[in-house]
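Dear colleagues,

As part of the handover before I leave the project, I'm documenting each prediction I ran so the next person doesn't have to rerun anything. This entry is a single chain, and its sequence is reproduced below.
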Amino acid sequence: MQERGYCMNSFTEQEQGLSEYQANLEIFMQVPLFSGLPLDPLKLLAYLSTRESYKADEVIFQQGEVDGNAYFIITGKARLILDENDSKKVIKEYGEGDFIGGLSLFCRTKRLFSLQAAAKTVCLVLTREKLEKTLEQFPGITRKILEEILATVYQWEFRFVTEYGRNCSSCLGALGVSLV
């Protein structure tokens, strides 16, 4: 799940003198999937998440794999790639402040795309297992997270219909995920 971009980078963290834990907490407070949660579960997520660095052209996740991770890009850029018939097509680029892969935290599905670092990239990584530990300790937050996921799906489909529906009538037949 890709979210809106947010302003948090390593320069800002150093300038403010934030510890890695504090910086992680600030990030979770800005990501819409988690931003409406009480402080205590956010603190646990900040503590349980890790930071990973990727070199330019290194694969962050591979199309077809099941990894259960979500990534917040702290610094750098990454390309979303579709592998089709021995060719790779760049679908989109992500940068600092983008949150990618949130749905994989909730269900075991294969990745539809690959994500590759376009430059040296640092991500805050949350795993499904770490989120499950948080949900076990704070079961009341599950509904709030689910509401945010559903609102994101609805907003995406609404924007798609509004922007492309008139020009792509064949695309409309593939929509309806918000009706689930």
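The radius of gyration is 17 Å. Residues 1-15 have pLDDT under 50 and may be disordered.

All the best with the project,
I.
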